[in-house]
Write a structure and sequence with these properties.
Family: Belongs to the adenylate kinase family. AK6 subfamily.
Strand order of the largest sheet: 2-5-1-6-7
Largest sheet: 5 strands, parallel
GO cellular component, one term: cytoplasm
Catalytic activity: ATP + H2O = ADP + phosphate + H(+); AMP + ATP = 2 ADP
InterPro entries: Adenyl_kinase_AK6, P-loop_NTPase
Number of domains: 1
Number of strands: 7
Main location: cytoplasm
Length: 174
């Protein structure tokens, strides 16, 4: 937990691309009156990158620029950040880290619908198989704040909303 007491907690929702981070983040932010920060959109909007990666068809984000951009916002609390990576965010920013996991067959279909190229799909499927984001989160944050949740079905998403909502209510009571 942060050394600065916030009125509302900050939550990181992370996982392999296609696991439902943005959908879950948007619903939670609307339901609980949090601000949602989609890192990929922020990087594009504020040009917080070092150019374009042709192989993976994405911007090469500048971690320092992103952190500088978000520092004041994160100190206020009540933020849900969604991004596929997590190890470079300051640990003090988050009170809960959710790692979404998805069945690789379903994930493959979701990535194809996004028109990802073969290299990008294979890289992301491997990332999910080898639990790379989960391991990154466990190595970067206190184990007690890292939660792994399944995100394959609509029912999983609804269940995750309930679990995180209960956690937010519990945090607020403290």
């Amino acid at each position: 937990m942060s050394t600065t007491k916030r009125v509302k907690p900050n939550i990181l929702i992370t996982g392999t691309p296609g696991t439902g981070k943005t959908s879950l983040s948007e619903i939670l932010s609307n339901t609980h009156d949090f601000k949602h920060v989609d890192i990929s959109a922020l990087v594009k909007e504020k040009e917080l990158h070092d150019g374009w990666d042709d192989e993976f068809q994405c911007y090469i984000l500048d971690e320092d620029k992103v952190c500088d951009e978000l520092e004041e916002t994160m100190n206020q609390g009540g933020i849900i950040v969604d991004h596929h990576g997590c190890e470079w965010f300051p640990e003090r920013w988050f009170d809960l880290v959710i790692v979404l996991r998805t069945d690789t067959k379903i994930l493959n279909e979701r990535l194809k619908k996004r028109n990802y190229n073969t290299v990008k799909i294979e890289n992301n499927i491997d990332c999910e198989i080898y639990q790379m984001i989960l391991e990154e989160a466990k190595n970067s944050y206190k184990h007690e704040i890292v939660k792994e949740l399944q995100s394959t079905t609509i029912e999983d998403n609804e269940h995750n909303q309930q679990i995180i909502g209960e956690w937010i209510n519990s945090w607020n009571k403290q």
